[in-house]
Amino acid sequence: MLLSFLAYKLILVVALFAVTMGVAAYSTLAERKFAAFFQDRISRIVRALWYIAALG
After folding, report:
1. Is residue 43 within 8 Å of residue 36, measured between CB atoms?
2. How confident is the model at residue 56 (pLDDT cuts 50, 70, 90)?
């Protein structure tokens, strides 16, 4: 009984931690994209495509 209770609580803590880290990662990504949009910056991939198009 006690072992299953501890296992349940451990799984719950790990799941909540994983969800929290996922939300933090995606909110950081969204904040960076939002800031880049308002600062009129372009991403590295788009800039690289422009360089390739200019060379070709």
Report:
1. yes
2. low
d(CA 46, CA 17) in angstroms, rounded, equals 34
42 vs 28: CA distance, rounded Å: 17
Beta-strand runs (E) in the chain: none
pLDDT at 45 (0 to 100): 77
Kindly give, in sequence order, each residue whose CB lies less than 8 Å from that of residue 43, ignoring residues fewer than 6 positions away: 36
Tokens 């299953």 locate to 4
Yes or no: say if 33 and 26 are a contact pair by the CB < 8 Å rule.
Answer: no
Residues composing the chain: 56
Cα(40)–Cα(28) distance, integer angstroms? 18
